[in-house]
Fold this protein.
Amino acid sequence: MTETIASIALAVNEKLKIQKRRIQNGNSTTRLSLVTGTHGDELEGQYLAFMVGSFIDKNIDLLDGIVDIYPALNPMGIDSITRGIPMFDLDMNRVFPGTKNGTMVEVVCSAITDDISGSDVCVDVHSSNIFLKEIPQIRISVPTAEVLLPYAEMMNVDFVWIHESATVLESTLAHTLNSRGTKTLVVEMGVGMRITKEYCGQLFQGVLNLMKQLGMWKGKTVPVRKPIISAGREVGFVNSDVAGIFVPFSDFGDTVKKGDHIGNVIDPLSSKVVEEVQAVCDGMIFTLREYPVVYGGSLLARILQPMQGGEDA
């Protein structure tokens, strides 16, 4: 069943509609919300939403509960290949929780927040931007870690990044929902404007496992991977010192040592290597530059440092 959760009049007799699809079966009222499309250039979640919805359709008898799929919170951004909301140059994920008596965007965000609130778990799926590629990961804040970490470990991701609370903006959908008592996991994976099918497949298995653990799914699931958890670790940031074209020598998940040669910045005009990029610390690469054109200060990689004492999480 498709429902419209917000409808706002636009110019030339058009309407902005935010829609969700509800799939319900059995007697349980346990509810999982799968949310994506907050940023118009993040498309990984579109394919994940399709995978989850189509699989449940074919196996509806195995569902005992409610799955709400929100495939496009920012449909105008997706239509125009724009990260924010067109015309307003506004990041939708900086407007939550919104208000019922505000601007068009605030009204829409308020309706979205109210509709998702009350879910047992919400999975908020994002991609990186066009510049960086992210290993499948879940990001949660320190204050919510105790509650959310057990759910994050069910999701078949490679990495759980626990942020200091100061880095989590209060105007995001996830912060708003968690503040209201709706457990919300933020997934980051892949790269902007692209679909990485292997990552979507990985998260698809994670969603099924989460549903199984919530008692919503009676079908079989595959064993999920144990994620690396960032608690007690530092993250090293590798930035370019010069402008040029970045050519990586390392890949996601690679374990490197401080000083390892992980890539070059080259100058096509002079045919010279203008910077030999080195790892700033020991650890695992979990973010890597995808768009090769760089300038001084451009982020090239993030490296998760080992646990103090050398023990893994």
